[in-house]
Structures are given as C-alpha cells and as structure tokens.
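Note to self: keep these together.
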Amino acid sequence: MQSPKLKVWLDGKIIPYPKARVPILTHSLQYGSGVFEGIRAYEAEDGPVIFRLQDHMKRFLSSMKIYFIEQKYSQKQLEKAVIDVVKANKLSSCYIRPFAFYNTDEIGVGAYGKPVSIFIAAIPLGAYYGKGKDQGIRCKVSSWRRINSDILPVEAKGSGNYLNSIMANYEAKDSGFEEAILLSASEGYVAEGTAENIFLVEKNALVTPDKGSDILLGVTRDSVMEIADDLGIGIDERQVHKEELYSADEVFFTGTAAEITPVVNIDGIKVGNGKPGAITKKIAKKFDDVVHGRDHEYRNWLTYVK
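Structure:
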C-alpha cells in the first residue's frame, strides 16, 4: 500500500494520493481500456535524474493514439508534470507511472467521446526482483502465448494487454518459478517476459527477438542495444527458437522496472553455468553507470530534476 503522504498529478494538479479517487465502475477499471507508461528516476551526484523521459513520454502518447484515447496534453506538458511529481515527493530515486484512462462510470464497452483523465505517480521502488537483480532468476516458458497485433496492438502499453502477462506470471509462480517467458502467438518464436524484453548471449554476441516477434519495443531494450554496440558487442535481432533459450551461454531481461536482470534457469535447465554471465554483468555495470549519471557519454538520456 502506498503512503498516504504521497503526492500525485491528476489532470493538471498536484494533489494528495488519497484524494485521487474515481468510481469503482470507471470504464478503464471495468474494461482495461487505459494505457500507461513506466519510467525510473535515479539518484545522481547532482540530484535525481529521470532516465529517457522524452522517449517514455513519446511512447505514452503513441499508446494513447493507437488506442484512440484523446490527447489532452502535449508531450512537453506531460514531461513537466513528471518532473513536478518527483519534486513534490522529494524523491532521490523512484518509479514513475503515468496512466491515461476513461473517467466515466457509464456501463458499456463503447468509449468513443468519453472523458479522459491522466494520472501520474512517483513512488519509491528498489530492485524489482530483489536479490534476483544480482543473483539471477528462474523462468518458465509459459503455456500462454504472447498476444499479437491481430488481437491487440502489441506496440502500445494498453492496460488490457497485460492480462496476458498476468496469466503467464501466475502460471510461472504457481510452478515455483519467479517469472515467465512467452512465445509468439503466430509461430511460437521467443517473444518476451511478462513485462520485460529478453536477450540471449551466443558466441559473445547478443541475440534478441525482432519487432516481428510480437514484442513491445522497450526503451531499456533500445538502451542496451546502443550500449552493447558502443562496447563492441555484436547484436543480432531476429526470430529466436525456444530451444535457443536452453543452449544460450547467458540470458537476461531488460525493462524499466527489471532494469538488467540475469536469467539463470529456464524450465529447470541451467543457463550456462547457472550464474549471471560476464557479458550480462558488463552491460549491467555500464547501464548502472549511465542511469546514475556517472557515464557522461550518455548524459543526453538524463533529465535532471532541479
């Protein structure tokens, strides 16, 4: 439960979190018709820095557009709102959740012309997988397939899309694993985790599912690919067969919440030697330096909160 002292942004105003209330019959709660974004701010030497704020807000607005949700605010207005929320809560590091939803309690799936609200919260959040961020996690290849664009728009972070992830995550945890890996619905290639992109290491190079594998194009995924290229690590975007997960030298997840998380076991089979690998560690160290402002080469990815 979040602290009642938390301050949030709702439709242009900073208010106490307990006052940000909507009816239980709100359309986006009943039908999953909202869209959201996930952003992180990190503690740096000169104060909090928000990682790739512009790219995240661009995707947030793109998700709204794809789902036909009215865009009430410009990207610059929303970026300022994020900064204001971080300031208002005096947080040196946090997870930021923008959320656009239909603020109506009328019954019926139709949302055309209904009023839209935008909510932004900034909350303290440590490592998403706890010790797993350093030690690695165990994953199960889910029996549930990843949705594709014939079903729902996979390039949007639509709330309803994540019912697919919830089912896969529940199945994995009920089977004794920490997380799930989903295969693409159409052809059964590796897609992604429940809220993460996935990378394999083969012959000292990265392999990651391509856009055609029904993935969400993650901001952290893009960051890792650029970092890897700068480190001289090869990258192959392509369709990935399920069995490659078992034979890979290393596997890791990327995501705003997950950051860089090693995967050390899949379906009971050790990945490599069953421990986080050298390339995973190298990329994770570089990423950590970047997001905390220690690597000045990537300062253009950081928005300083002053």
